[in-house]
Amino acid sequence: MAHEIGSFAKPEQIRFHRFAPQDPQRKIMRRLLREIVTSNSVTGDVTTLEDLSVVTRLAAQQDEE
Q1: DSSP labels for 43-58?
Q2: Distance CA 53, CA 59 (A)
Q3: Between 26 and 62, where is the model more confident?
Q4: Residue 28, strand partner residues
Q5: Chain segment 5-36, per-residue pLDDT in tens
Q6: pLDDT at 1 (0 to 100)
């Protein structure tokens, strides 16, 4: 992977989840994923989420690790 995209862009970890927070247009909300990983909480606007339970499940999995 480092050879293809460069070592500076190589992620530290790759996690696979069944669900991702998506808006009504089915776009993944990367901002929420970033907040869950860095602070284990979501502080921004989540009113456009299709399913809010996805965020709580991802945060719970983050706590377990």
Answers
A1: -S--TT-S-THHHHHH
A2: 10
A3: 26
A4: 22
A5: 777 777 777 778 788 888 888 888 888 888 88
A6: 66
CA gap 19, 32 in Å, rounded: 13
**Residue 59 to residue 31: CA distance in whole angstroms:** 14
Extract the tokens encoding 11. 């992620």
Nearest Cα to Cα of residue 54 among 13, 18, 16: 18
Quote the tokens at residue 26.
């089915």
Q: How far is CA 55 from CA 3, 15, 63, in A?
A: 33, 15, 12
44 in Cβ contact with 31 (< 8 Å): yes
Residue 17 contacts residue 58 (beta carbons within 8 Å): yes
Q: Are 22 and 49 in contact (CB under 8 A)?
A: yes
Task: Specify whether the CB–CB gap between 40 and 28 falls below 8 A.
Answer: no
